[in-house]
Amino acid sequence: MADERLIAALDVSTRAEAEKLVTQLGERVGYYKVGMELFYALGGDIVTWLKGERKKVFLDLKLHDIPNTVGNGICSLLRLRPDILNVHTAGGLRMMKAAAEALHSAAAEADIPCPKLIGVTVLTSMDAEDWAGLGHTEPVADSVLRRAKLAQEAGLDGVVASPAETAEIRRACGEDFLIVTPGIRPAGVSHDDQRRVMTPAGAIRSGASQIVVGRAIYAAEDPRAAAEAVLKEMEAV
Prior knowledge:
By secondary structure, the protein is α/β, with parallel strands linked by helices. It has a single domain (6-235), classed as Aldolase class I (TIM Barrel), CATH 3.20.20.70.
């Protein structure tokens, strides 16, 4: 059985590339992230295909708009039966509440399991200089924790946060709060455009519920071997 703590990112732009990677990873990976690149290229068909392959899907679209629009958008995505959906916490408490309430209501009306709804805190590509450039005066870590608490208050199931903030979020929000952690780089792998990063084992030790691994797997010469290395490292924790 696949270790669902690992979410492999399908950060590719074509159906052929996505299907090839899923085939290469086989039964060892059961959870995939579908983000903007693939979803905007193919629409919901790729999610439907993954579900047909008995894979779980984190639909990573980071909805951020006025409360009513985000609530309606979340309900439109529910028909695809993703396992995790997300909004951006920058939309504020009212927006997150509207999303959570709309999603739970729509799932109950459709008589289907409600997907987990999580909030993006601060992108892992941002460092202190980037953050200050936006006019923020408090440290990134403080803002992330503030947003995680706000997401919990709004009724979200968890957040997306870098491994650098995971331990503090876990202490503040409890063991049942879902923390999905991108910015994962196995030892010896380039950080690329990520800034706040950690190894798979480090992220799990810090309290991550699930980790998202992208380029370290899909851009590897042997993606399955790369995934196996991440899983082995996680299993040692």
